Amino acid sequence: MSAIIIDGKTIAQGLREQVARDAAALPVKPGLAVILVGDDPASQIYVRNKIKACEGAGIRSFESRLPGKVSQAEVAAEIQAFNDNPNVHGILLQLPVPAHLDGNKLVQMIAPEKDVDGLGIVNAGKLILGTGGGLVACTPQGAMILIKSVLKDLSGLEAVVIGRSNLFGKPMAQLLLQENCTVTSAHSRTKDLREVCKRADILVAAVGRAKMVKADWVKPGACVIDVGINRDEAGQLCGDVDFAAVKGVASSITPVPGGVGPMTIACLLSNTVLAAAATAKRRAKASGEP
Ligand code: NAP
């Protein structure tokens, strides 16, 4: 068997084009603020890519670069300024922040209606309660779009998510549960991880360990989603899955790069447009428009 390679780049491009059309149809120009603290090279690249993607989607970007030694209060003041700015509909604090700052506390200061990363308590809570109407974390949202590009009905399928971070693993597990999968959240204390993974019809790996998931961890015919971003021994970008070996066992698989990665930015743009649309609706209602 040779798996279908899920083309995240093309699917993300389609989503970005849709986002640009949605943005153009709004009565307001959507705005995204990105806050970067310090000079971590990887974070600088991520922020640059996010700003560039905004331009292509008709979203105004606001960039705030703060020095690495900035205080918690100064970052909080920057977040508050964007919370108060009516031209900003989405705020993203690029993580991780330097160790002397409490990143989680700062994320919680972002107004829920502008929390386009979906990491605040209000949006994470809406996801868990299944109320809808919240902003869903970008990478799991993107991973779910990729899963649905190959599986039309997820109901009753066994899903295993390796990793339980707030950023990815927990919201991913919730999204799979909402689709009526039987979900296992695996992590560093999981016993016999290989056997747990072998049960999965959908296997999602988000650990940060190069090529950890081997071919004999994968049920024949499974859909394998690789979230990890690592460097292999030759310095090449690779995921958490041993792609070359696993593609001979799985029915579908995401590559790294070109799988989940491009979906994250596309979903960030999508969340920003959703946030702007919700603001426009609230303003219209407040001014008595039908
Ligand atoms: P994280 O916060 O470091 O979480 C890693 C998770 O993996 C933890 O839950 C940890 O378990 C688990 N883990 C560690 N070693 C393990 C092992 N040997 N066996 C089983 N589980 C193990 O990382 P993250 O933020 O979720 O990111 C995970 C990976 O995805 C990273 O490579 C990151 O770069 C990538 N990522 C990519 C994107 C994208 O846009 N493509 C977005 C986000 C993240 P414990 O909880 O028990 O410690």
Describe this structure as you would to a colleague.
This protein is an alpha/beta fold. The chain has two domains: 25-112, Leucine Dehydrogenase, chain A, domain 1 (Rossmann fold); 138-260, 3-Layer(aba) Sandwich (Rossmann fold). The protein is 42% helix and 15% strand. The strands form three sheets. Strands 1-11-8-7-5-6 form a six-stranded parallel beta sheet. The chain has a three-stranded parallel beta sheet with strand order 3-2-4, sandwiched between helices. α2 (41-56) packs across α10 (260-286) and α6 (138-150) packs across α10. Residues 139, 162-165, 167-169, 186-190, 193, 206-208, 227-230, 260-261, 264 line the site of NADP nicotinamide-adenine-dinucleotide phosphate. NADP nicotinamide-adenine-dinucleotide phosphate (NAP) binds at residues 139, 162-165, 167-169, 186-190, 193, 206-208, 227-230, 260-261, 264.
Strand content: 15-25%
What series of H and E elements makes up the topology? EHEHEHEHHHEHEHEEEEHEH
Q: Can you tell me the CATH class of the largest domain?
A: Alpha Beta
Uncertain parts: none
Q: Which sheet architecture does the biggest sheet show?
A: 6 strands, parallel
> In what order do the strands lie side by side in the largest sheet?
1-11-8-7-5-6
The helix tally amounts to 10
Q: Fraction of residues in helices?
A: 40-55%
Which shape, going by the Cα principal axes?
globular
Beta-strand segment tally: 11
CATH architecture of the largest domain: 3-Layer(aba) Sandwich
Q: What's the number of structural domains?
A: 2
CATH fold naming of the largest domain:
Rossmann fold
Separation, N- and C-terminal Cα atoms: 56 Å
C-alpha-based Rg, rounded: 19 Å
User: Quick check: average pLDDT?
Assistant: 97
Secondary structure category:
alpha/beta
